[in-house]
Every structure is written in C-alpha cells, then in structure tokens.
Amino acid sequence: MTSTLSLAVFPAVSPTSSVATKAASTRYFAPRRLGHVNLWVDDLGRSEQFYRDVCGLNIEFWEPDLQATFLGTGHTPHDLGMMKTTGGVDRYGRNGLLQLPGTIGLAPGLNHLAWELENEAELVAAWRRLKAAGVPLDLTVDHQVAHSVYVFDPDRNYNEFYCDTVKDWRSVLNGEMELLTSVWDPAAQEPSTTGLYDDAPALRHVQGAAVHPRRITHAVLVTPKLDAMLEFYTRIGGLHAVHRANGVAWLGASHAAYPYNLVLVEGDEATYHHASFELADEASFDSALAALRTRDIAPLRVVDVPWKRALFLADPDGQCSEWYVRREGFADVPRGSADTPWLV
Q1: Spatial CA neighbour of 325 closest among 172, 211, 239
Q2: Which CA distances in Å does 328 have to 257, 259, 294, 307, 311?
Q3: pTM for the complete prediction?
Q4: pLDDT, tens digit, for every residue of 308-330?
Q5: How many CB atoms lie under 10 A from the CB of residue 258?
Q6: SS3 state of residue 170
Q7: What are the chain's domains?
Q8: How many CB atoms neighbour CB 171 within 10 A?
Q9: For residue 260, what are the contacts with CB-CB under 8 A and spacing of at least 6?
Q10: Residues 254-270 pLDDT 10s
Q11: Phi, psi at residue 203, to the nearest 5°?
C-alpha cells in the first residue's frame, strides 16, 4: 500500500482566513487503530526471514512484480509491509498506475504508517472535507481488500488512511498475488457504512519463531516540530492526546483495546524510530529472551521499567522494532534525554 509521494505541502493560510477558521474547528479522519507499518528494505528475502523466523510474523501474501511482502499476526491483513528499495526504477500497479516511482524508496526506512477507519463512508467523508478545505492529498487507491487515502505529515512522513472493503481478507489475499493496487475514485459510488474489520480474528502462530507477538500497537516518531505534528495528527489524523510530558506526546485512536497508537518524541531531527509489537504476557517475554539467547541474537536493548518490559531488535537493514509487555502508566524521563525513544 504505497504512493507516488508527491511533493505537495500544506497551504499557508492567515489565522483570520475562512479556510483557517474552518480547519481549526474540523477533524478529518477518525481512525480506530494503527493498522500496519510499511518499510523499505534492501533485501526482501533476508527481511522476510528475519521478521518471520525471529520475530514471529506470518507471511500472509506477496506481490512479486511490486517486490513487496506482507506479514502479520491476523488482526489485519498485515501488521508489517515491506517493499524492496526501488534502485531508481519505477514500479507499476494495476492498469498502469505508477505506484512506486523510482524517485522514492532509495534507502531502507519508513514507507508509511497506516490507519484503519470504521468504514468506507467515514473515509469518503474525510476525503471530501479535506478536498473542500484545500488540504493537499496524494493518491486515492483500491487495494482490492481496502480503499485508501494518502497524505503527508509536517515531517514528510507518509500516512495511509484506509477502510477494509472485504471482511474475509484471506479469501482474497493469500500467498503469491498478481498486482493488487489500482486507482480509486471516492466519489464514484455511494460508500458503504458497514465496518468490515474483524475484532475477533484467527491469529497466526509461527512455529519455531523466537518471538510470538499478538499485534502491532503503535509507532514512535522523533520530530523537531512537536507542536505542528500534534496539530496534524489530532486535526487531520483524528487522533486524541492521551498524555503529554517532557517533550513527549502519546496519541490514541478510538479502539479502546489500544491505550495509544502513536508516540511523538521531541528531538533535533525527524526520524522514524520504531514500531512496537505487543506480547501476551511476562512469560511470553521471558520465553522470547531465552529463545533469542539460544540463537545468539543479542537485542539492541532490553528495558525493564515500571511502565513496560521491552526488547528491541535490529532487522537486516538496521531498522529497529520493539517487542514488549505493557505495564501501568507512562514513561517518566527527563526532557531531551537520548534514551527517551527507547523508554516511551
């Protein structure tokens, strides 16, 4: 689920303009939860093996022509998507859609964050409000099991806001797939008001993996524009502030089972720090640590604090992921600490 990554920026408006007045009082999207994180990787096969055999994410489906693989636990069609870096070569979706221009994905890193909405009607209504307010958008696409709208945040992180269009997604997405993505016109027909997500899915367990996660829960971004990012993710993104202290903001969506879905950490440079995957309990955490030791895999860090127990792993490209058990409360760290992104 990707984009042409246009270079549109948010329009400048005076505080007294009608657009500014309307924008200040309008929330656009209303996500339920963080559905997945999508990464650029250099070697798709090597990354697949790491996230499956070490991290316990099941390979659900893949698109050879797009050079993309999608892995997960079963809560959504994927918790983690991976695209091979483009090497400067364009890649196309269905019907000639330029899905991955060669100007993007030149190095490993974050492709996008994906936010699940209640239904298609909410997605289309948000799209209409954004268009009317003159907020720049990138692609609107049909992924066969989801419809999606893409937009940038102030740090140029890419965000997908999507709704499921098929409840039994494994009946459509399973194993090797031909190209999936084509253009979607949100105004072409009356949108569905039915929520097609599955809140009681059949979860996957990767036999023999070192770690056995339940689900992706949140991502952590470092930003030099904390106030602007808060404005974007609350007003455009529709998240709500759960807690804020010492240069850190925890933001949540509407799903009550997820205490928060995004953590923004104030820092000198805009950086995707990591995605976080929840384990079932402390016993699962102990088992993961023991299994990693038997494979001579050393975590980047192991954190044991009152609000969580966590281990961090580096993938083959050096990108970080967190595998954790949540405890009570929020991180208590001094403002500006280099350890903050690991501790939140």
Answers
A1: 211
A2: 14, 10, 30, 5, 17
A3: 0.92
A4: 999 999 999 999 999 999 999 99
A5: 17
A6: helix
A7: 27-183 (3.10.180.10), 213-343 (3.10.180.10)
A8: 9
A9: 217, 218, 242, 243, 250, 251, 252
A10: 999 999 999 999 999 99
A11: -85, 150
